[in-house]
Structure formats: C-alpha cells, structure tokens
Amino acid sequence: MSAAVTAPPCHNSRPSPLNPNSRASGTPSIAGKPNAVSTSTTRRHLANLDRLLVKPPPLPFPVQHRRSPPAAASPPGDGDGEAATPDDDARSGRGGLLNALNLSTLLPFTRKPAVDEMSPRSLAYMQRLLTLSPRLSPKGSIAGEWRRYHGGDGVWQGLLDPLDHNLRRELLRYGDFVQAAYTAFHSMPSAADEAAASNGQHRTLVLPDRSYRPTRSLFASSSLAIPPWAARRSQAPRWLTQRTSFVGYVAVCDSEREVARMGRRDIAIVLRGTATCPEWAENLRAGLVPLSEDAKVAKGFLSLYKTPGDHVPSLSAAIVEEVKRLVELYEGEELSITIVGHSLGASLAVLAADELASCLTAGDRPAPPIAVVSFGGPKTGNRAFAERLQRDRGVNVLRVVNAGDVVTRVPAPIPRREGHVHAGGAELRLHSGDSPCLRPDAGPACCHDLEAYLHLLDGFTGSGRPFRADASRSVARLLAYQRPSVKRAYVERARVLGFEPASPRTATANGACADGQYGYLASPT
C-alpha cells in the first residue's frame, strides 16, 4: 500500500489581500498570526472603500442582466453572519450593482474578479454600500464670486491648474447637459417636424439637473441636401440624411435655491456635435467666409447656424428669440448666459455667443455676461473674429481639450493663406494617459468622445498630478460608449458583477435601443 498523502486544501485563487485573516504570499508569520504589515495594508484598503464608495447617477442606456457564475456569489451561512439579500437584490437590478463600476471601487491592485480578491464579509459590505442612496458631494456656494467662475474676472485665472473643485462640478454639469442632448436626439432623431409644429420641447429630453428647466428645442438645418437618387439607394436610416435635426435646447435655472447658491439666474444654451450626413458634409466646408469686413468664420459652421429649415427657423433666429424672451421675463435679476457645446456644437456655441453679445446690448444696458464652454471644439474663424469676440463682445471661451483629440487641431494651417484660430479665453488640457481605466493606446474616437472628456475632467486635479483618488463618476457609460478603449480589468469586473452594457447588436436601426434609450454607441462627434 502506498503511503497516505494528506492533500493540501484546494484553493483556485491566492488568499485575499483584503482579508485580515489571510497571510501575504511568501511572507512568514509569527506565532501563527498574520503579518503585521499585510494587516495594516488591508485595513487601509478597507478604509478607502468605506470612504470612497458612492452611487453614480442613473445610466442613459439599458443594461443587460447576466447571472454571475456560482463562484461569484457568497453562499448563505458562510460563517461571516452576512445575509445574501443585498447581493440578490443587486443582481436582480433593484440594488443598483452598477455602482460597483464606480472608479473608487476599481482599486489599482485588482487583477482578478472581485470575489477572488475579497473576503465574503468585505464583498457583502461593499454591495450593501452600493444599494444606498447617492451620497453627492456638497455644492459649495459661489454666489460671492460667480463672475470669476463664469470667466468674467480674470478669465478663470487660478481656477484651472490646479482645478478648483467648484469649477469642476459646474463643468461636469454642463457636460452632462450636452449628453442629455445626444440622448434625446438618438432616442427620437426624426422629431424635428413634431417638435417644431408646437414650438415645444423634444419629447424625450430629460435634464440630469432638475434645477434647470428646458424652455425651447433647437434645430440646425444644412444648406446641403442629399440627392434624391442617393437617398433612395442608401441603406442608412432616414434621420442620417435629413436636412434638419434636433441639435440642442435652451434651459433656464428656475430653482430659487440654486439661483441663490450660484448668485445669479443662469440661462444655458446646449448644443450637441455632428450626428447626420449633412452635418458631416458641412464640417468639411472649412473655407472662411466674411461675417464683417475682417471677421471670417468657416463656411459650413455658418451655414448650419444661419440656414432655416422647411418648418423651423434657423438655429440663429431660434436662439436669439428665446434668449431675448427669457431676458425680458427675468428683467431686473442678475443673469448670466452659458453656451456649451461639444465638437461641432462648440463652434456653433461660439457663433451664438458672438451674435447674442451684439443683439442683447441696447443703449446703456449691456448684455448679460456670456461665457462659452467648449468640449473638443475645432477652430471656428480667423484671428480677427477671435479678437472681436473677446475684445469687442466681451465673451470668453473656456476650451476643455484632450491632448490626444485631433478635432481640436483642425482645420490645419495652410502655408501662405489666412488660417483658422481658436477663440480667446482659457484652455483646460486633459490627457487620456492620466486615466487609470483607459488603455494607453486609446484611439482618436475615444479621445474625442464626450463621456471620455467628462471622465478625465472628473479625475483631473492639475498638471503632473495623479488622477483624483475620490473621482466619483461611474465608468459604466465609458464601457458602453468606448468599451474597446477601456482596460480589460474593468471590462472583466463588469462581467463578473453580472452586468454588461448593451452591445451594438441590440440597437435598433434608428440608433436607439428597443426601449427608446441610447445604447452602445459612441457619443457622436
């Protein structure tokens, strides 16, 4: 008979570094006790989890539920005294397990699925935290210096590097306003005629900040038209070739509490980027055309801004009319106008700011302070236009730029010809390489994606500084919009937790998912 061999306990994974009762691999213990250094490190990680876990806002895309493998669940009665209810609720969709995709939960040392790295007690505790109501960071009052945050006093001097936390919150809110415009367009892309008939709001437009109320939908029309023969032969949905499309909206802050916090009532004009074929065609018309004797702008941008549709006024006329109405409605109050856009929308925002600064000035009454927030915007006009906008109109532009975004560098200069320049103001420069969850080889589409911009903005603290440890923006949207550019550890973490963003195959022909929400599509440029 062969000698009996005692088999070691079977473990398919190394002991959890977060379990205080486990022993660091390769580190000797003293008198059977855990190594002191390992225990100290473990407690520090657990403290970080307690401090950083927060619930992200609801997602604008449907989520496919997938049952986690048996090993991913903590069995009841595992000796830790933790009930399985929070885990079951989260997996069924009631507990909001997508909160686990929050940056704060994806710690740098994670290399394997979460259940392999955490003790059952720690995992259950994390899941319980993720079922709580959102714990939003408090909004600081900016009433005393709102003009500084709006670019009026010193053009954001001293606020950008390092990035002021109040300014970060304001910029993220405006960025989410643009995401809402994208979502509304893709949920109902052929809504121009319906909304225009009643001069009302886009039916699917929902703002993420309820202190603002949308007052008017905006539509942009191209002067170009797809030839009838091309439209008939095209396999693309009708909205891709339509001449007029929903491009944004006007909203006003009507929460008196928020008005008091901000020190003024803010009117926001929100404009999305390119989404249809005629808009792409207009982008390519980069030749400069005159606005005045010296000031010139790109022909395609001006065309989209000034061309009326068959049943709607031009974008220019709609913006001026609605803003004038709101200024008269709130006459006597402290007002500000913030125009925010992404990509093409950023150039349209600059054109709108130039026009509003001129037409809202009446006699001795100046126009309300106007600022532009540009996410990934291209160059709009020549140097004379940029100087007129800042010097004569008093408009400053805050350009949020990803260093890897090629759109912010076009149109490229042509030797011995008058070139395009960016509007004057300030620049906040981000880098995709600073993100702990984006791949270092993230491509041009990711570098220009609006959600990638907002992800980087949420983590930016200053040049040469590490990504913000308590960045609270969920990476679930990033997984949906730019999944190939997200590091594999984050993608695998989502799978292990039993949730995956909608795949491209689940999107319907009109670019929206079956329930009418925006699916797995990159934010259009």
Automatic annotation (TrEMBL):
Keywords: Chloroplast, Hydrolase, Lipid degradation, Lipid metabolism, Plastid, Transit peptide. One of its GO terms (cellular component) is chloroplast. One of its GO terms (molecular function) is phospholipase activity. Its main location: plastid. Pfam families: Lipase_3 (PF01764). The keyword Hydrolase applies. Residues 1-96 are annotated as: Disordered. GO terms for biological process: lipid catabolic process. Coiled coil: none annotated. This is Fungal lipase-type domain-containing protein.
